[in-house]
Amino acid sequence: MGTDIIHAFGDHPDWNETHYFNFYDRKNDICGLMRIVLLPNRKEKMMACFFTMPDGSVVSSRHKLDFDKKELAARNLRFEQITPDKNWTLTHAGTMTRTAGSKLRQSQVEMNLKFDGLNDIFDYRECALDGVTERRDSRSDGHTEQFGKITGRLSIGLDELDIVALGGRYQTWGVRDTTELTSWKWLNCQFSEECALNVSKLTMGDSEIDAGFVYDDGKNIPITSAKIDTDYHIGRKPRSFRLSLNGRDGQIFIVTGRVVKNLELPSANADDAEGSKTFEALAKYDMGEKMGYGMSEYLLR
Fold it and tell me: d(Cα 36, Cα 294) in Å, to the nearest integer?
């Protein structure tokens, strides 16, 4: 569709492009998420890579670097496109921090994974109603999503793992200003290679913007509205949620989910004086007789 590229840089100081991947390997009980952010006008790159391990430990690396080349590589993490709109390699070679309770240690992490897309790339602007594209595209100039299969090798310290997983990726580009947001909820799940969902809800004051898709019967079904009811722990950490999703052709999808593993991150926006928190977690989802796993991401202030 012509968007699966590194885009021409805009002139705004905060123009950025983000590429993100996640996966959950059920057999190995390992969840991974990683992102690279290009901020060319600030002459910066940011990278983050996290793995939640079966023993409860978290392996992590997060850095801000000088912008060098127009490529998706930062520190020890690299994303390389093999086939546009379809296939990527995800690699890492270097040390990361392994945290177990109050104990920290450095572990060598070698990752060589391949992402194979299972649906056509979905553009959030396809959720526009009555041609009002701007209403669905206020967070950035562009936002696309895809789910797929992730396979390959991952070694963390002495752990040598063959990864066979489902997961997702997204790409955003433009001026991504989140300072006016009241909340941002992003939920995605892969039930199988034939069924997945991806939903976002932005709340800005009294205004809400919904977008996403359900992939079923071999096609992406755009979501025109989403109701998300969330049960929180003390401290506003999400515990479980219920989704009621309306498809463009009149479909109604009822989905329930509960958090399985939490990974709490500080706000990625260093200029945000509101002290927002991002709660990222692995969740288990149920939709009718289908069961799957995926990420839940809540930005709350």
Answer: 20
What is the C-alpha separation between 131 and 133, in angstroms, rounded?
A: 6
The residue assigned the tokens 């992406």 is 220
Among 81, 62, 76, smallest CA distance to 19 is for 81
Q: How big is the chain, counted in residues?
A: 301
Two structure tokens written together for 90: 């995800």
Are the beta carbons of 113 and 150 closer than 8 angstroms? Answer: yes
Rounded to whole angstroms, the Cα distance separating 45 from 76 reads 13
Residue linked to tokens 């007789």:
289
Please report, for residues 5, 118, 125, 126, the alpha-carbon distance to residue 85 in angstroms, rounded to integers and kept in the order given: 9, 10, 17, 17
Tell me the chain's radius of gyration from C-alpha atoms. 18
Q: What single-letter DSSP state applies at residue 3?
A: -
Residues 6+ apart with CB under 8 A from 81: 4, 87, 88
What is the reported pTM?
A: 0.92
What are the pLDDT digits (tens) for 56-110?
899 999 999 999 889 999 999 999 999 999 999 999 999 999 998 888 999 999 9
